[in-house]
């Protein structure tokens, strides 16, 4: 029972009219895991999240959450979920504290218990001093923290976070990451969507990359880098700027496993950056600037989902 | 049949939590109190200006063989209007705002609460608000000698039914609204009902075509039901009006919860 997956999806499909948002995905999320959906806008991440949140009915396929059927047992599943939506939908008519108390009541908690949890959670997200103020004057980061506190008011087994740190400044993001990490340490299972690679690397044990409604890759951040990229990346810029890129890329053929000419620079994917640089010099190429760095999830992401703008 | 099925699955606790949110808004500051208070005055001002003021020019009125002061003819209609506007204010402006702009219901539906429980909870709250208005209004009527205390007590549940009907209707309409421009249409419609539903003059004074048209609209039935009770002339006809209002309430809630599910749980 303990190792039974919390989420099981088989051939999950979501269509809106002619548009297919999710095109038959399979996945499993284990208890205690932090699982991420990575992908460009329109990849189907949010539609998948809404189905897992039991507010959107799958068009086809099977979806079991916490051992129950997502369509039939919606209210019973939702009772054990914590949901942090992409856009804050806090209640501006209510005070900060009342937002949490009111929300706890939707889960059938008593007034006294709701108040106790509200105060405890305000402490946890460092908003106790704003408890009796309205929501509107709060900063973006504070609102997000309050939304996350609200998602935890029922002590959920599974927390769904749709782009939890989009639009926040670095301080706010780091504070939020730290709180989410503590949430995970307490044993909660986290499922999140993001298009920030650093966020995925920070938070996720395992992730899937979605593109066009399908899962195009799956694994831990490290294993994805090992599979879809190389250990290091050499970034070269040339003095002749934009015109020469194609020629330089051709001259670099064979230096690494893959050469990616961009408008302003050439990326060479290699196992050993220093050896590759020596080879570049041996071939008589003279880049104006050189950067050797480790491969990141961003390299994987761009490799898998392409460089063209989605919207 | 469908309605009984749906109602039997309602969780009182979850409906209560939806109502509780509005109590929380009252607890959160003065702004909602202002909204609540202002809605009460409109029908009262009409009663005083037209019922009493214009009534002084008109004097007595004879409807269906009964003679009464103009003020006591208008007062029950204003009572029905206050039940209507209390329920409509809550289920149109407030409901639409929560649905479309504040995304309140989106947040609520991520919890175990279901769309039909949102609809029923909001409706109950709208009736609480409307009934607050009508209870005070009835006290004013008794104090002004426009009805008797006993009949006022009998009229009160009728005003609750009026609130239910207009609450259901308002909620259903709100789920169809595209934006604020549609509220202008709504207010015009509401004002037309207010003027022509046998409120200020008996509907029999209109040409037959208009009279029939009026008899199809809801405020007419609300006014007839409430007036019959306030004047102490109950009859079997009142049951027909009550049935009309009950059906309107049921259809409204059913339609609204379906639309909520369609739009928010897509």
Automatic annotation (TrEMBL), chain B:
Gene Ontology molecular function, alphabetical: ABC-type transporter activity
Statement: the UniProt record of this protein carries the keyword Transmembrane helix: yes
Cellular localisation: Cell membrane; Membrane
GO cellular component: ATP-binding cassette (ABC) transporter complex
Main subcellular location: membrane
Spans traversing the lipid bilayer: 31-58, 70-97, 118-143, 149-173, 235-256
PANTHER family: NODULATION PROTEIN J (PTHR43229:SF2)
Name of the molecule in the record: Transport permease protein
Protein's organism: Microbispora triticiradicis
Organism taxonomic ancestry: Bacteria, Bacillati, Actinomycetota, Actinomycetes, Streptosporangiales
